């Protein structure tokens, strides 16, 4: 059985991390397999939305501790590039990416989920960044993304204590968007994806680009960027079809 599975339903791709025997621990080789699956998703122009999940009890428990334990500072810096670059790639993918957190999402696993645009969780999932309990900190973007998602105070509490939280707490602080029964998580993920699929493909991609720009700019520059890319959409077939369809429906 492949370590990473990729399948497609309509215009939605599903990437499944499939090493349940390791709880989907992120070794360098496993990350290479994930990247290969992402290659498939990115090269398929018919994929409008991507779902990422794990098999078994875990989304991912994070970095493979055995692989990293004996490394010195220079070696671990290079090794951490694997996870950091993976998360940056996911974050910058042109299509919306939705994490389906089916079980444990710890350390690097939660860092990967935070690189996704939207996070849905099973009611049985546990989330946390326990790196400080191992004498280290996050190495793949956790200290940077968590404060942006939940605010600085909540992020500091999670990171300083290394505690694991349940999905109700994760929902209350905005770390996940929705919580579903475990047996319904995948289906509800596809339902959300279908709501995105029905909208203009280029519009959704452009909206993602505009939102990403807002993180790095002041409001004036952000609004100018928004107007510029908004205007360009009026040169696309998507705009003519979607807006034309609206006008036709309005006449009826």
SSE blueprint and pairings:
Layout: E1 4-9, E2 12-17, H1 28-43, E3 49-54, E4 58-60, H2 65-68, H3 73-92, E5 97-101, E6 104-106, H4 108-115, E7 118-122, E8 126-128, H5 142-150, H6 152-161, E9 164-166, H7 167-172, E10 178-180, H8 185-197, H9 201-214, H10 219-232, H11 237-251
Parallel strand pairs: 2-3, 3-5, 4-6, 5-7, 6-8, 7-10
Antiparallel strand pairs: 1-2, 8-9
3D architecture notes:
The chain has two domains: 4-197, 2-enoyl-CoA Hydratase, Chain A, domain 1 (Alpha-Beta Complex); 201-251, Lyase 2-enoyl-coa Hydratase, Chain  A, domain 2 (Orthogonal Bundle), CATH 1.10.12.10. 51% of the residues lie in helices and 17% in strands. It is built from eleven helices and ten strands. It has helices at residues 28-43, 65-68, 73-92, 108-115, 142-150, 152-161, 167-172, 185-197, 201-214, 219-232, 237-251; strands at 4-9, 12-17, 49-54, 58-60, 97-101, 104-106, 118-122, 126-128, 164-166, 178-180. The termini are far apart. The mean pLDDT is 95.
């Amino acid at each position: 059985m492949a370590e990473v599975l990729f399948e497609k339903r309509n215009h939605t791709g599903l990437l499944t991390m499939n090493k349940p025997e390791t709880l989907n621990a992120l070794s360098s080789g496993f990350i290479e397999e994930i990247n290969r699956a992402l290659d498939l998703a990115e090269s398929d122009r018919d994929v409008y939305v991507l779902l990422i999940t794990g098999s078994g009890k875990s989304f991912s428990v994070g970095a493979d501790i055995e692989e990293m334990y004996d490394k010195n500072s220079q070696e671990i810096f290079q090794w951490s590039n694997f996870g950091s670059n993976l998360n940056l790639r996911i974050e910058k993918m042109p299509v919306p990416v939705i994490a389906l957190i089916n079980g444990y999402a710890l350390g690097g696993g939660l860092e990967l989920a935070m690189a996704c645009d939207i996070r849905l969780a099973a009611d049985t999932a546990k989330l946390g960044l326990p790196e400080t309990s191992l004498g280290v900190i996050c190495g793949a973007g956790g200290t940077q993304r968590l404060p942006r998602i939940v605010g600085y105070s909540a992020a500091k509490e999670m990171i300083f204590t290394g505690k694991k939280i349940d999905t109700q707490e994760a929902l209350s602080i905005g770390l996940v968007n929705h919580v579903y029964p475990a047996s319904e998580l995948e289906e509800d993920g596809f339902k959300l994806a279908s709501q995105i699929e029905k909208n203009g493909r280029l519009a959704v991609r452009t909206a993602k680009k505009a939102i990403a720009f807002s993180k790095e700019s002041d409001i004036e520059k952000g609004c100018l960027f928004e107007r510029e890319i908004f205007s360009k959409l009026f040169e696309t077939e998507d705009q003519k079809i979607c807006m034309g369809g609206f006008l036709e429906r309005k006449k009826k």
